[in-house]
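Backbone geometry tokens:
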Amino acid sequence: MSRHPSAFAYRSRHKARIADDFVNFIAASSVPHALTYKEIQAESSRDPTIRAAAEMIHLSKWHQLDAYTDAATEALVSLRAVKDELTVTNDDVILRGSRLVQPAVLHTRAIVNFIAHEGHQGLTKTKALIRSKVWFPGIYSMTECILRKCSPYQANSNRQHSEPLNMSMLPSGPWQNLSTDFCGPLPTGEYLLVITDEYSRYPVVELTHSPSPEKVIPIVEKVFAMFGYPVVVKTDNGPPFQGIAWKDYLTSVGVLHRKITPLWPQANAQPESFNKPLMNAIRAAIVQGSNWRTELQKFLRMYRASPHCSTLFAPHRLLFGWEPRTKIPTVVNSDTRPDEQVACHNDAIAKTIMKGIMKGISQSPTGNPPLCKVLPRPS
């Protein structure tokens, strides 16, 4: 190394150091500073809404709210909604319980302090922390808005965007389109073959010791002997439905085989959604020490007689045209037939709501589904 460094190298290092100092200054200046009680007190004394609210709390004059200007009335109405929780300190700082009510000029700064200095915990944790310290009208919606603009939060959020659901049309009649899937293995090593009518949602469940085509085809043939041949049978791409024997069988009886996308159970949603309560019933029977095969038949009997959430008609009624007899007395009207147009309309509404819910979940940073309005039952 030379003992006589050049002046050019020295000037370059000096300029680089100045640039680093400038960047560090900007970064330090950009970090929001912590709020102090004196700042909140000073800004509260200058905020017209806080001053008016403090006067109303002292003198119990909330009934005179209409006398104030329109600009202050909107914020005061929000404060009046929680007036029984508000108190005023000797410094004219308003508290809601133990939380400081922030003046308008400090709203954004109060939220940014929690987001920038508390480890980027995410929406739920940030709301919980803010809820324990400060409050002002609209604080939670403002927190969400600011948090969505926070680059570190956005970079680390697990937001999954899915394509809009392409809902299938309801078949024109019962037992035309069937969905088939396996459920299991059960604790006994057996499997349940689940066949669901997409029109009526009527389920057929058969027990098998193996999901091989040699075992499946005779079971399916027995079901078809009871209900007739469908037009389409929809299955996943599992081994029982990939073989030549299964393909030749459906071809011989004139049934179209439709395969869903591999590893995508949403495409075969009806049997998948039915399998959940089915397995719950079996597990409950095992826990109680009951015969799960007997309890399975009880579950199927009640499921077929219960109105479905999409069509609002019982699967048994839509498939056979009459109400099944259960342990509950029923007034039978021989002239009453299931209104197929009403069932189709209810199904379309249910699928539209489902599509909107899935779209809301994919766009929600918390992954929590939005609330939806419950549809009235048709008369």
Confidence is low (pLDDT under 50) at residues 26-32.
